């Protein structure tokens, strides 16, 4: 039970160690390290299950809720209480804390960090070193040394990874991944319980985005199908204004939805950032800084900003000076070549080159980010997203811009758009699932082959019987640009952002594109769900509570699309290329400015947080203050008195 | 002493009652109401001083700090404690609270609300009604009725108003209003202690704005004086870009400065809004709303938004349909009239008409705002500012736009700009001080004349000897659009905003204008200081901690100025009126877009709050949570247990 009754967690963490080999059983003195690890794990109150795989042994761990709770208290975990304030967890006062939507006391993310705290907290409590052995290897376990860290550094523990929970996984598969009839509806709360905030936020965003896409899709279809007679000339501008307003509204409402989700999951966003920065703050300040100290802090802050600006400048410079000429050359060559052979050759060379270029860019970005002082992992990840997105932006759109500007021919542009959209979206959906499957199959094949060699049974087809071993062989959900700061969500969001940019920036050229996108996204929801539930190891949950940097990228794309659509309209209505500022052109320019105004003015009208969420939060803080006001005051004044004495 | 030693406040509140007339002394039974009021005031622990003026009697009130503190505790005032959290004030734990920069326990705003609480809190504690009389008038003071409210409604108390503190006022006059040599420097902390947050924020803003204006002023001077040879054609665009960037930077840095000021004064901005909304929240929510209740709340919220949008639409509609044609007609008539007599007549009619129009607009706006649900007085005031500013914006600039577009002649535009600037700024500075003085003199003359008639001494020149009577006769610091929601700061900020709009929107037409503005603003600082210290009653302090709606208005003016300057540049470089999108024009359009991008992108680079302020605040919250964590948890769980039982 995944903490359902509050009794104990499921077997949610797996440790992979080599299989015990019988022939060197009693040769050495000391303890067999895997055996003693299991003993130690049981001693700290965990439930352990050992499973013999084909080439490795798997140790599955579960924890009674009390063990978990004591670990959480030791970790000084802060949790939402029923008065809405985040307080440090105490096992004895567990009733004060808000339970998860599925009834368990800890969220998946909290459970995992407790597991980690418990298993890495196993140290040698004796005064003397203990001798450990495995497969002829011997090592000493020093006092106060963490056993698991030692075993990891000795190479005995191959991996510690979160396990899928079979009951919940099957339930989700049935209700979510295979439930195509629900279109855009998804069981978000269950996804949150199983995968954590960030992934649930992604799916919630994807669902809402797809739902909202129905509006421009139907408008686009109408524009495509019907002839508006004398009003035809105004159809595209009206569509353009509609689409931009739609996008602005959508993102404002998404922010509201996000804050509602967080309120429902009992996550205090404001205090989340507090938590992250608390430790840094502690070192730096014990009182309000004055004079010399303050100016030092300010200098430090500005130095940080300048560093960030410099890094961004390097990235922009790199993109403009290296990537832009390359992309333009490719687009130009591709356009002006007639031979199909050379064209395919070009595409092959190009695809190879951008693979390397992207990886190189990501590496440089990560290097740059390391020199920045970001206030936590999520902040660094956001910084990376901005930098790498610039690269992808150029890669995806420069060819389209080239087309649009060189040919100034709507029909060619439409063709290219359809090609790109179908190629990028359909292919990606296929690759997303097939690449992990191929990886998994290859690994499985290798494992089985090794086994066969060992046993000498060349012709017997071995089978993987244990579920945990299958999971171990599955690839992990990681980003294509490197696993350091981002996980697989990077690729999923990138896909979404590039799609959004494509449909928005060329909305006027091809209104029907929105229909394709709706179809694609409905598929995307289920395909991504299937991917996460079946194709990958269970991902490590992240603490981020919003879509972070991507929100700003989407906003940027809206502004870009205002500009590009205006250009498109100018091209459409001024086909002779006179570029005169005639009334029509002037009207377009005015429209552009009005739209930009709407874009930036609208946020004043719709608050990002629904009133009831805000009022609730605010009231909670006030209640908490009232509850402990006197107590606090007394301790402050006594602190002061002591200082004076 | 204005709370300096913490011993007692100065005489900071005055009550005006009619002078006792001797001849009806013992005619009636019961108590003389002024005498008994003074007795009651002394009974609740206030210090009272009675001063006989020429036609009225003035009762000055001071309070020992303990009386003040007990009143604050009864008011449930929240104050910043030394751990940085706002907690309810308790007299016994007063050491826990942060002291003001001048060493006193309460700020001026807090003192005034305590005074009000104390004096209006005097009720008839006996079971029976008491009979009161004054000048033959009799009334009954019912049990549990507030004496002062009764006396106000009987018309006996003419006014209760905050008094100037002579020591501090003289000190400020010397160090601030007459201290011209300091240019833009001002003793902001002392201003804060004496006038409260909002006025101190205004002067801090004015000082910083003037200081920053030196940059564009010197650039403008250079543009005006030097000939850049072949580079001359690029001078204006460069100046334009510089000015816009300057403005964007300035406002970002102002936000930082504002948060630093608040940190120094011990004001928790985040909790300020909490405080305001707490009472509303209490009625509405006792738990997280669900289902029907939630949807009702949401409906209510959206209804509020729609109401606001409707009101804004009414105002915009009114401005465009009523004011715009009127202003254009005036501008057109004025332009096309040659006779000076008719011109002067036009100006006179115009000035009269806009007076009425503005007042009418303000009344309509206030009426509209009353139907809105704003979350407190400052929020309503902001809403009023937006609505009324639209009116003034049209009034001030439409003539200039008309000039700029009709003549497309830089020289005429410059002349008009100088005229307007000098007329509006110099005249306003003069009026600001002379109008209150004339009002004061008239009132004084009237009071003395009445006196003389009474005494029958027709030829003796009576003198006002008491300071408090002089203050009573001074006008109060109120807004020209009505005193309901705004005070005199509205006019001061309006002047600043209109000036800012004028210099920014026509920056390219006349770079020298920045020099005039610097000179004007240096004068403005001292003139405004003099006005507040000498010409008016001491203003009632307001709780607002930022410049509020004006910040958004300034930002809007920046965006507007990007557009107008681009138009100006087009006019300058395309004098034949071909309006062709030639390379030059295209370059300007590109520049415009880049600038808009900078405008909206820059806020991502510079955070609005310095890192040390934020870290400090964050750490304070964390510390407070740690301090009372266990205590809180226990009370929450016991609450829950009780509920279950």
UniProtKB/TrEMBL annotation, chains A, B:
Coiled coil (UniProt feature): none
UniProt keyword list: Membrane, Transmembrane, Transmembrane helix
Any one GO BP annotation for this protein: chloride transmembrane transport
Ranges annotated as spanning the membrane: 202-226, 232-254, 313-334, 340-358, 384-405, 496-519, 540-562
Localization of this protein: Membrane
UniProt xrefs under Pfam families: Anoctamin
Domain Anoctamin transmembrane stretches: 191-617
Gene Ontology, cellular component aspect: membrane
Membrane topology recorded in Swiss-Prot or TrEMBL: Multi-pass membrane protein
Listed name of the protein: Anoctamin-like protein
Native source organism of the sequence: Zostera marina
